Automatic annotation (TrEMBL):
Keywords: Amino-acid biosynthesis, Histidine biosynthesis, Hydrolase, Methionine biosynthesis, Multifunctional enzyme, NADP, One-carbon metabolism, Oxidoreductase, Purine biosynthesis. Pfam families: THF_DHG_CYH (PF00763), THF_DHG_CYH_C (PF02882). Pathway: One-carbon metabolism; tetrahydrofolate interconversion. This is Bifunctional protein FolD. Belongs to the tetrahydrofolate dehydrogenase/cyclohydrolase family.
Length: 287
């Protein structure tokens, strides 16, 4: 068996074309969706992501502002800036690039973002809403994964989904979204005892551990859908995922590549959440 590839770039451009139409409809009402991105420090990977986000905004008709604070900025300065953005009617979405420098408490920073502008879906209120099935914003990476599954008509209801990774950004919300769609969900970590025993029974396997090539062909069921959320930079500067793509693609039914898989979808769903926030702001202002 040789897997079909789930092409993140192709699905992302299709969704972005739809988003541009929604942005044009907003423009006709004199509203331009606005996203503020806060970056603290100069981590090279974070800088690349933030640049990609700004570029995607431009392509989708979204106004974007990037605030790059020096790494040693006091937390209170950033908290105050978030308050200013919360009150700015031109800004519909606020994203604070993670990870933050060690002297920051990410929990406090995230909690300071207005719930209506939390396009990452990381605010505790939005996490609670997701848990109870009333999400305001789906976190961008798992949202992108769900769109990829939908685009390829992957059956979710009744299927066994195994998520490897338990982060607040990917693993936990991913598990909840698969559960919401009727999957039987198993959450593992990279340290799960006899991990292969679980992954071998997965109809849908989502891997987000940050451990390069940790999922090998022997760990995957023939015909499974394999989603690789990992982005690891090798010593030579190239990118690789958490899945050993070369061997797993010979056994899986569907598989995402790295790069060109989940990454472009993450940014696209950020654009989608920002446009959604701008559309909601019109209705809120109508009263
Ligand atoms: N508050 C916050 N929200 C995030 O959503 C967030 C974050 N912090 N911190 C970092 C992670 C990572 N992330 C990526 C987005 C796009 C690509 C992406 O476009 N990847 C390209 C390759 C890009 C490259 O060449 O490095 C691809 O996979 O094809 C990757 C990773 C968003 N994150
Ligand atoms: Mg995200």
């Amino acid at each position: 068996m040789c897997a079909d590839i789930i092409d993140g770039n192709t699905i992302a451009s299709k969704i972005r074309a739809e988003l541009r139409i929604r942005a044009q409809a907003l423009a006709a009402q004199d509203i331009q969706p606005g996203l503020a991105v806060i970056l603290v420090g100069d981590d090279p990977a974070s800088c690349i992501y933030v640049r990609n986000k700004a570029k995607a905004c431009k392509e989708s008709g979204i106004h974007s502002e990037v605030y790059n604070f020096p790494g040693e900025t006091p937390q209170d300065v950033v908290l105050e800036h978030i308050q200013t953005l919360n009150a700015n009617p031109k800004i519909h979405g606020i994203l604070v690039q993670l990870p933050l420098p060690p002297h920051f408490e990410s929990r406090r920073i995230i909690a300071a973002i207005s719930v209506e502008k939390d396009v990452d879906g990381f605010h505790p209120c939005n996490v609670g809403a997701l848990v109870t099935g009333h999400a305001l914003f789906y976190p961008c990476t798992p949202y992108g994964v769900m769109m990829m599954l939908k685009e390829h008509s992957v059956l979710i209801e009744g299927q066994h989904a195994v998520v490897v990774g338990r982060s607040n950004i990917v693993g936990k919300p991913m598990s909840l979204m698969l559960l919401e769609n009727g999957a039987t969900v198993t959450i593992c970590t990279s340290k799960t005892r006899d991990l292969a025993m679980y992954t071998q029974t997965a109809d849908i396997l989502v891997v987000a551990t940050g451990k390069p090539c940790m999922i090998t062909a022997d760990m995957v069921k023939t015909g499974a859908t394999v989603i690789d959320v990992g982005i690891n930079r090798t010593a030579t500067g190239s990118l690789c995922g958490d899945v050993d793509f070369a061997t797993v693609k010979e056994k899986a039914g569907l598989i995402t590549p790295v790069p060109g898989g989940v990454g472009p979808m993450t940014i696209t769903m950020l654009m989608s959440n920002t446009i959604e926030a701008a559309e909601r702001a019109i209705h809120a202002n109508a009263f």
